[in-house]
């Protein structure tokens, strides 16, 4: 529920379950002891009011606690085509190191920079 979000799901609803494929220390500047959780597969769900209103909208729990049968889910592999590796070096804007990001993340960041909505951003990649 953020002005720069392009989410279409109702606020507070559970919409995705992911299969964790690994964890690694965050490479983002200033993240300290934060970790990034990678997922290899995901399944869409529709569970209203699942968010517990904690600080982080991600919820770590068991599927049994949520009443979800993983065998009944339509699992999809994470698309590798939507993640791009930014060039090595530093960001011209902040001087901070840059890393991998998705098109959606890039659109949100650019939208915040220019004061527009993410759907107003178009990105073209030439190989």
Task: Give the helices and strands, then pairings.
Layout: E1 14-25, E2 35-47, H1 63-66, E3 76-77, E4 83-85, E5 100-102, H2 103-114
Antiparallel strand pairs: 1-2, 2-3, 4-5
Features:
about 130 residues; alpha+beta; 2 domains; two-stranded antiparallel ribbon; 5 strands
Explain this structure:
With 127 residues, the protein is an alpha+beta fold. It has 2 domains: 1-78, no CATH class; 80-127, no CATH class. 13% of the residues lie in helices and 26% in strands. The strands form 2 sheets. A 3-stranded antiparallel sheet has the order 1-2-3, with no helix packed on it. The model is unreliable at 81-97 (pLDDT under 50).
Task: Give the SSE order as H and E letters.
Answer: EEHEEEH
Estimated share of beta-strand residues:
25-35%
Distance between the termini: 35 Å
> Domains counted in the coordinates: how many?
2
Count of separate DSSP helical elements: 2
Q: Which word captures the global form? A: globular
Counted beta strands? 5
Please bin the fraction of helical residues. 10-25%
Largest sheet: 3 strands, antiparallel
Query: Strands across the major sheet, in which order?
Result: 1-2-3
**Which residues form runs of ≥5 with pLDDT under 50?**
81-97
Structural class: alpha+beta
Mean pLDDT: 77
* Rg calculated over all Cα atoms: 17 Å
Entry summary:
The chain is 13% helix and 26% strand. The chain has 2 helices and 5 strands. A 3-stranded antiparallel sheet has the order 1-2-3, with no helix packed on it. A two-stranded antiparallel sheet has the order 4-5.
